Amino acid sequence: NPLYHWTHLELKRFFGIDEILSEKTCKSIWDRVNECLQKDEFTPQELIRRSNVKVVCTTDDPADTLEYHQVLKGFSTKILPTFRPDKAVEIGKETFLPYIEGVGIKSYPALLKWLSERIDFFHENGCRISDHALEYVPYAVGDAEAVFNKKLAGQELSLNEINVFKTAVLKHCAKEYVRLNWAMQLHIGALRNNNTKMYNKLGPDTGYDSINDLCIAEDLGKFMDCLEIDNCLPKTILYTLNPKDNYVLGTMLGCFQNGPVKGKIQFGSGWWFNDQRDGMVEQMKALANLGMLSRFVGMLTDSRSFVSYPRHEYFRRILCNLIGKWVEDGEYPSDLEVLTKIAKDICYYNAKNYFGF
């Protein structure tokens, strides 16, 4: 299990502990780690500094005040928000109306205006990335305002109506992202809250989500095409939770690449259940077979832990081992200058340039 890899890298890199974590050693390791955590060099900011982190992008709701981002502006590492408008997009969920009412929105035009204003506010506070969690990428054409009004009236919506609204709101956001030169992230394919009993007991995001197995290609293509037609397809990173769709995303990239941005449409790194050695390798092999691995913006970890940064080392080791194996097998030239540049770009420079940091 990758928990073994992550745990031991964290214990080694931050606490200098080489022992294997087991029932025999857990008490000793627990005590030593907690002793370390009392020291000044183990505060969250020091852990970030020690990891040589240049930028951290958090996940933030449009209604967030971003007050703590403003407080942290003097920190040597940039702590930037990421725009996550899922609650304003997911009209089919029971959380939609309370959320809309909570931010004082009473009409569809007001919703779009509010989203634009919040995007501008996030931009002023350093945001350059959005993030959307989607079971599937929606695509439907229709009257989104009528759907919104029907929802406000308490009426049931059809799946097509839900998709009409989601398509329109996502397209509005995409236009704003293009205006501000943001990157848009689409995380596709989670099946959430499978266990109703545990959801009622613990709430969402408590370990009862799994991989979905929907067919995503056709509507994803139509959605990206409708943005491209109207010149509002932003820099986009596509992540799949189901590795069956690696080749779907890997080939979709090539349909919408466009200058002057190098690698404008990206196949995102192995995400969530794929955030382990085999998942990372399969994602990179698909990208290498179908596109330009050298343009890849590399690793993303959505861990909330301040000692999770060795996951980037984990990624770098896996990347270099994969490329090295290709060289050893004669599948790629042993050109150290080129190989070094590819590795450095994937691990640092591509992301730096892509996001404009």
What's the story with the biggest beta sheet? 4 strands, parallel
Mean pLDDT: 96
Q: Which shape, going by the Cα principal axes? A: globular
What's the total number of strands? Answer: 8
Helix-residue proportion? 40-55%
In terms of structural class, how would the helical and strand content be classed?
alpha/beta
Largest beta sheet: what is the strand line-up?
3-4-7-8
Into which percentage range does the β-strand content fall? 5-15%
| Secondary-structure element order, N to C | HHHEHEHHHEHHEEHEHEHEHHH
Radius of gyration: 22 Å
Low-confidence stretches: none
Number of continuous helical runs? 15
Q: Note the gap between the termini.
A: 34 Å
Describe the structure.
- With 357 residues, this protein is of the alpha/beta class.
- 50% of the residues lie in helices and 9% in strands.
- The chain is built from 15 helices and eight strands.
- A four-stranded parallel β-sheet has the order 3-4-7-8, with helices on one face. The protein has a two-stranded parallel sheet with strand order 1-2. A two-stranded antiparallel ribbon has the order 5-6.
- Strand 7, helix 12 and strand 8 (265-267) form a beta-alpha-beta unit.
- The model has no long low-confidence stretch (mean pLDDT 96).
